[in-house]
Amino acid sequence: MHNNNQEIDLKTEVLERIIRAFFSHDFKERARLIPFDMRPKGAEVLYRCCIYKERAILKDRVIAGLGFAIEDDCETVDLSKYAERSLERRKPEENPLTIVKAACKGCVPNRICVTNLCQGCVANLCRKVCKFDAISIIGGKSVIDSNKCKNCKMCIEACPYNAVVKIAVPCEDSCPVDAIKKNVNSTAQIDYKTCIYCGKCIMSCPFGAVHEKSQIIDILKNIVSCKKVIALIAPSIVGQFSGNVYQLKSAIIKAGFSDVYEVAQGADTAAINEAEEFEKRMKSAGSIMTTSCCASYNQFIKKHLPEIRTFVSDTETPLYYIAGKVKAKHKDALTVFIGPCIAKKNEVKENSNVDYVINYKELAALFNAKDIKVQDCKEEKFDIESSRQGRGFCITGGVVAAVSKVLETKDLVKPHVINGLNKETIRQLKKIVKDQKCAEGNLIEVMCCEGGCIGGNATVCMPKVSIKAVKALSEQSKDITEK
After folding, report:
1. pTM surpassing 0.85?
2. Tens of pLDDT along 51-76?
């Protein structure tokens, strides 16, 4: 599932107004007025029962946009105080996600349900296939005991009338590790001890109730203080905005950044290191190795499947390598990763070479607020061009393709791709641990997002658009072995 366009537009508008307020003569007052400016007196009610509820939700979105947890909000504190606190803040808050409770509709429980399409057929197929004795026939109709039901869906498949359905809670249903559930107040709550920060709950919620806490004000504070702030752009940024990657570099500098580096350079380093490691493992009787560049997959390993750690590459992520190079060259600079991935906010907590993280929606809001059109900017080349394979890291299969290209002994490798973390692919990973091997291959690429990083939760265009642009740029680039 890709982000709902209306929800993207709303979040981007809030961020854009926050940025405009920051650059105004009175940041605190302009921030306070954002809900009223977006829903003035007499305005049409677009989403909720009344204009007051819409303003309350907009206030929560502004709180998240200023970088704070909505759950900690006291209704008596107005937005001007949050704006003031954002200016005083020395570092971003710990957990990157927060819930807009007023936007959460408190969906009905996730369950299997028999609808009134049930014909009370003589065959009773739904009852016969249930292994948990959860279905009874009452009044000539099938009834499911929710206390016994294990949500196996066998009854759904068996019913000839399609009378049995799954009632899904989108955020819960999309989470591969069951880290988001409704609390006693029937609103969503995230268990950060199990969350892998994949962002799928953000993408799936049709009410936009799951929010990232933005670090945009922290970055802008440093920019206006004339500090050197360098952007590190992920490979998946290609195609997200009108214009090419060289115009994008120019646009980012126009927005206030001192310089721009491609994280694809770090991907080149990661591919070379991972190829060397793979060859050593295979030559020393190793059976398999999985990639290690996905931050969300690394969180999954840490919290849910530590047993697979022995098969995971020790190579660091592309961001790790490029950030280290940039910090070594610009010791006084602050670095900002710009990508599609909320999990990076957790990764950088363990990497002192990266100071802040923003996503493509936030960059779009910054461009809009400063009236920057990427396609109108001049082209500005990078000091070092990334390789075809490094730029293709963000597409499914791109990592194993890059590693395979570098390998000296190419007959060693049998690539296999796990395209997205979900309940089924997690079972596959657990089977690999159990069997201590993988029948499908020995170099296994694991990406949390389907399609690769171009399917991340904070992208602003459809994956097929980004894929086309990434491939076009890659075709113009040199092979990693030619650099």
Report:
1. yes
2. 999 999 999 999 999 999 999 888 88
Specify the length of the chain in residues. Answer: 483
Domain boundaries, the chain: 5-106+172-214, 111-167, 228-482
Residue 437: what pLDDT?
92
- Topology classification of domain 228-482: Rossmann fold (3.40.50)
- Domain 111-167, CATH class in plain words: alpha beta
- Residue 447's SS3 state is strand
Own/partner pairs for 463-467, CB < 8 Å, 24+ apart? 463/2, 465/239, 466/236, 466/238, 466/239, 466/240, 466/394, 467/239, 467/395
Report the DSSP beta bridge partners of residue 416.
Answer: 444
In terms of phi and psi (left: phi > 0; alpha: psi -120 to 50; beta: otherwise), the region of 214 is: beta
Among residues 129, 170, 133, 144, the alpha carbon closest in space to that of 7 is found at 170
**For residues 396-423, average pLDDT:** 94
Q: Which residues contact 50 (CB under 8 A, 6 or more apart)?
A: none
pLDDT at residue 284 greater than cutoff 90: no
Q: Which of 48, 107, 23, 25 is nearest to 35 (CA)?
A: 48
Distance CA 463, CA 452 (A): 9
Residue 189 C-beta-side C-alpha neighbours within 13 Å: 9
**CA-to-CA separations, 429 to 123, 152, 322, 479, in angstroms, rounded:** 38, 20, 29, 31
